Amino acid sequence: MLTANNISRTSLGKTLLKPMSLEFTTGQMWGIVGPNGAGKSTLMNLLAGMSKPSSGDIRLNNQIMDSIAALDLAQQRAYLSQQNNDDISFNCEEILNMAAYPWGKAVNEAHLQQMLEWFELEHLKTRPYGQLSGGERQRCNLARSFLQILPNGFGNSLLLLDEPLTGLDISHQVRLFKLLKELQSQGITIIMVLHDVNLALRYCSHGILLKDSKLIKQGKVEDVLTAERLSDTFETELIYSATPTPHFYWA
Amino acid sequence: MFMPSYKNLLIITLFLSLLVVTCSILFAPSVLPWQALFDPQHPWRQIVMEIRLPRTLGGFCIGALLAASGVLIQGLFRNPLAEPGVIGISSGAALGAAIAIFTQSALWILPIAACIGAFVAVVVLLSIGRNLIGHQLSQFILVGVALNFTATATLGLLTYLSDERIMRSISFWSFGNLSAIHFAELAILVTGLFILCLIMPRYLTQLNIWLIGEHHAKQLGINTRRLTIHLVVLISIMVGLAVAFCGVISFIGLLVPHSVRAVVGMDTNKVLPLSMLLGGSLVLLADWLAQVLLAPAQLPLSLILAIGGGPLFILLLNKVQKRGWA
Question: What is the pTM of this model?
């Protein structure tokens, strides 16, 4: 459903992403892993159609990304980045309703209730966003991203999440991944940047490993995130253990 | 706490505004003799039709324009402190208008020159303060204050260059005074405001999303570049129209949207209509004060509003630095 053909990105003479080709198939859940500054967010921006690749092209549902009208694109994919404006005083419900903008009508009431319930936002509905905690804001933003593509049905929808776990407590992390798994099984394609290698291994079907703006490896998650390759990439020794060792919490 | 719904609030505000407009025509500054209501030959009729009516309606339009421009400017710059008078957009418009007066152009040139002046000011602010937008709230205001000084000083310089008659007309006008509004001016104001009211609604939802961040707006399919350009043009026309006929009036665009936001929240779809009604009413109240405080002398409108607005601006500055828009 999403293919990137030999894409790269340079800006102001700096290489942000070296050429790479990727192919994402409907209903896969991809985790992008890599050290800080590896180019993860740059790649996400390109895949979301927020910036243009300096070379190569990206196709979403067989259409060249550049040629898709902005509103059509917003109906097919939602992208939650880490850039947030924190001091606004819209309440949570108003923020969620913004998800309906690309559709030119009000947000679906059933979807809204579902998301309020899933992210436990019901009691925060009328609270100003600026007064929410970091985790509560993230839940609100996640719910908005889901609401944006839910009317599109599942088969053609793409969800891009840049570090979706930011600020979430353990219980909400688990809930989020359960929801993602559920949506994935319905056919939504999910691509996310994750810092937690363990969660990537456990929940993602596929993985991308980046380092120094370069693609190290892509493919099935268990083939990509091997102990040896991760140790090399992060220059930190990691041990693979099939079951968690004692004194280690595992959700 | 009991809070009326937005719809009820709008009805209440509309009613209050009508009341203020009626009172302003009938009572400000002196009470209209009741006989004038029924006697078409009564000498007061002429006063009402030729002086009070254009002055009241014109003042209301100007207040509505200034309040609306405040809402849009705060949205465009994602800065709750941005206000056309404080950050130099009104001064830009005033400079444009003064050049038109200086060159003794026709009446209809005046608002166009003012709009161009405001446009230049907004573009300068956008290009200089671009990296400060939405982040460094008070630094951005300082850029605006500097722009304000420059435009005001240039305007001052212009008065030195003009002969006495033109100088008097520039300085009379630049103090902010509604008495210069007659039917020709009123016609331009009403037409402008009417067209703006037709155009503005389509931008309000986009502006809401723009307020939560440029990235979010783009992600949701908004052409942010086009939105920015359209807002700049709308703001220039609003400020230009408001300034063209009565000079710079500060703080309306700050006080009114802030008070409204405190009640209905941040949704621009609700903030804008309420702000326009309240802005119009506030100008009429200030105009009434300006006429009666030191009667028979007429105080400049901008003086009244700045005496109240200045201290309030300081309070807001404090609040915004602590809590942002919330």
Answer: 0.89
